[in-house]
Design a protein that fits this description.
This protein is α/β, with parallel strands linked by helices and about 500 residues long. The protein is built from 18 helices and 19 strands. The chain has 3 domains: about 170 residues, no CATH class; about 210 residues, P-loop containing nucleotide triphosphate hydrolases (Rossmann fold, 3-Layer(aba) Sandwich), CATH 3.40.50.300; about 100 residues, Orthogonal Bundle (Helicase, Ruva Protein, domain 3), CATH 1.10.8.60. A hairpin with a 4-residue loop joins strand 2 and strand 3. About 35% of the residues are buried.
Amino acid sequence: MEKYCVALLVKKHSIINTNSYLYEPTITIKGAYDMDNEIFMSESGETYYYLQKDDFLVFETDYAVLYPTSYEELKELYKSEKRELTQEELIRAFTNEHMIESFLATFNYENNTSQVITINIDDFIETAFEQTSNKYKTLKTQIVDENLISSNDEIKDPFDFNFEEITNAKNDTTEEDTYEDSIFKIEEVYREVKKHIIAQDNEALRLITEISKMVVSGYRKNILLTGSTGVGKTALMKAIGNAITKDVFIIDSLQISSTAYKGLSIEEILYNLYIRCDKNKKRLENSIIVFDEIDKKGSRRKDDPAGQRVLMSLLKFLEGTTYIIGQDANNKSNSFEISTNNMIKIGCGSFSDTYKEMTIKGLGYNQELRVEKEPSTEDFIEKSMIPDELMGRFEIIVKLSDLTIENLIEIMEKSTMSAWLREKKIFGMCNVKLSANEEYLRRIAEKAYNKKTGARALNGMISDTTWKPYSIIDKNSGIYSEVILSEKTVDNIDSFQLVKSSK
């Protein structure tokens, strides 16, 4: 039995000198899933196996798929109370949810046990970076492999989706080079973004307003977006991009290399983005480019000696220039120009070194009162080792607010990206109600807050409390009608209540 669906394509990375593998998401692909043989066939004819948890450590191929989900299932998972979402919006939601998930599979020979955990790739890479640069080079390999994407066989952008055309898809998917930058209403975009992003109202409004002014005037200003880990910097940019129907590409600055160092050049990155834009040059040239973790390229990092050189290489990109790109860097006959003049460029990072000790003492009787002050450009240059030439290119600096415990509770209760609301939907698909008291959400929020990683910790903590009851209701289909969690469940995963169905 086959079903037309989308799936998350993941790539396998071997971690040197360990019994571990990292599975990193690359892109959402469309095609047909053979449920009997557990094989997914993409529109371009490539076949991938469905990766199940038991297969993570024995899977031999470099690519596999996760979460094959039909269009009907997407409508149920991302149901909107106000209107029926379009196919494009549903697949955007699917992509945004799963692209942040990576999986680490490890085998322990001492006790003959294996484990698969969901991780945030940015946190994992940062930890690996601090331990050894050799691990980093293994983990952050090129996401779009030349063996996977060629001129005759490419992964198409997930947002151009038509189930009726799946079986008749053509390999040549080059779009006509047209693009129209549409003017949008600030208030409408702001209302949409607030559904996803909590506790950053003024900051979101500022970003949306600045981008609107750029679209209307054609004059581009570079923005530096800062804030502590896990406050939602990249999530905010993705939400804005979705709301204004403009492509937002998050570039991991740690991947960028200069001559003689392993990594990706700006030209290679631009070509990969060109592929993701269905070879539509104008679409890429009018996109939003976010250089994430730009603060990690400061020269204090002994394991990244080319960091300052990379930062300096971004000067041309930020100012607006033309790059010659192509699939084969050595074959200039098939190369073409990409301009960055119309791109909206945003630098993004936590800049923890800059904000450290950015407080001033109170005066007179208020000596104990400390007030946080905004860092100057000189502070960024001195404390985070960002070249003054680069800082001079960022005309606007926006800092996202740190999240409180109450903010984290609100994220779980209201955000469309809430892991708690997602878990409730998943249980609902099994005709089981998932419920919890207020103390459960507060205990989750408190533990996440103490980790000092913002909202990032919420997903893993919630999953830790729901996997066991879900395995029980899956095994005993139709027996239970409700699962009730409490604050005790957060510290003891066996502490939950199962309510039997009255039928």
